[in-house]
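Review form for a predicted model. The reviewer records the input and the model, then writes brief findings.
Reviewer: anonymous (R2)
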Amino acid sequence: MILRPGVTILNRDPEPSRPMVVEYASASAKEPSYIKVWIGAELIEEVYIGSYSPHTWWSNNPLFGSKEPDPGGTATIEVGPNALLRLESNLIA
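Model under review:
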């Protein structure tokens, strides 16, 4: 999915036996911007995105770090102005 500037709330499957899977995330921007990620009220990721300098999260440096929403829980992602975030995951907007 492609996330555009603004706030998006993503939901994790409520079934505890289904783990959250985030395969890949990459952000880019035409002008300097940012990406912020919250689990509940806790800010867990805040990344500056330079002009035309993409930032990519791989499995060894995941977007959600060691945190993830509980089953049935939510994650909030804020995409700053002029930025886009490509997210490959089983989270549902």
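Findings: Residues 29 and 83 are 4 Å apart (CA to CA).
Further findings: The radius of gyration is 13 Å.
Recommendation: see findings above.
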